[in-house]
Write a structure and sequence with these properties.
Oligomer: single chain
Distance between the termini: 20 Å
Order of helices and strands: EEHEHHHHHEHEEEHEHEHEH
Largest sheet: 6 strands, parallel
Length: about 240
């Protein structure tokens, strides 16, 4: 049996602290691996790119930093950022065409290797489904393995808000998705990989968390991760040990 130590994380959250060797073992024998998308699977933060594209980059970048640092609820930050951006459907489509999301080096190989080993791969993102679908297609991840926020538009294409009923629109939403996956598929071991506070707080219900700092290092996450990597090559190397 793995001995797990519960340590208080923020208000009312408990984060499972596994040792480095336990985390590596859980990763090697995972039934499913869930990746955050922005600043993890892709190099950028999708919402910041959208804001830049719509000419309101600086205001939104500052709010993203606060949200990722855990100093405001995720839903508040998302609502406020989107009310500044107010992007149209046309602008979103043009962003994906003109500035497609840049995959983080090594992610394609890692996802391929996980698929070869019959480990299910999911993308769980506080970003937008239309952008995440583009990423999933490049990585051969089925579209029904995506959990992300949905933008809403009026019939004329103008911004109409976002779907607040999605679990990923809430703080703690990634954990809700993982609980749902465990129930739906019967997974015993699920590993969450990501760069931000919302990824860390998904463990539990995730069996283990791996912090990723290949694009941006968030100090709070680094300090609380028993395994913190800065390249996907480190994870590939671990899988080769079997």
């Amino acid at each position: 049996m793995l001995e797990l130590l519960l340590v208080p994380f923020r208000r009312c959250h408990y984060h499972i602290m596994t040792t480095l060797s336990q985390t590596k073992e859980l990763f090697r024998r995972a039934d499913a691996v869930c990746f955050d998308v922005d600043s993890t699977v892709i190099k950028e933060e999708g919402i910041d790119e959208l804001a830049k594209f719509c000419g309101v980059g600086d205001a939104v970048t500052e709010m993203t930093r606060k949200a990722m640092g855990g100093s405001m609820t995720f839903k508040t930050a998302l609502t406020e950022r989107l009310s500044i951006i107010r992007c149209s459907r046309e602008q979103v489509n043009k962003l994906i065409t003109d500035h497609p999301p840049q995959l983080t080096p090594g992610i394609r190989e890692l996802v391929d290797r996980l698929h070869q080993r019959n480990i299910k791969v999911f993308l769980i993102s506080g970003g937008f489904r239309c952008i995440v679908e583009h990423v999933a297609t490049q990585l051969n991840i089925p579209l029904h393995h995506i959990y992300a926020n949905r933008l809403k538009f009026y019939f004329n294409g103008e911004y109409a808000g976002f779907d607040e009923s999605q679990p990923t629109a809430e703080s703690g939403g990634k954990g809700k998705v993982i609980s749902m996956l465990k129930e739906q598929y019967g997974f015993k071991t699920v590993v969450m990989i990501g760069d931000g506070a919302t990824d860390l707080e998904a463990c539990p219900p995730a069996s283990a968390f791996i912090g990723f700092g290949g694009n941006v290092v968030r100090q709070q996450v680094k300090e609380r991760s028993s395994w913190y990597v800065t390249s996907f090559g480190e994870l590939l190397k671990e899988l080769e040990k079997i």
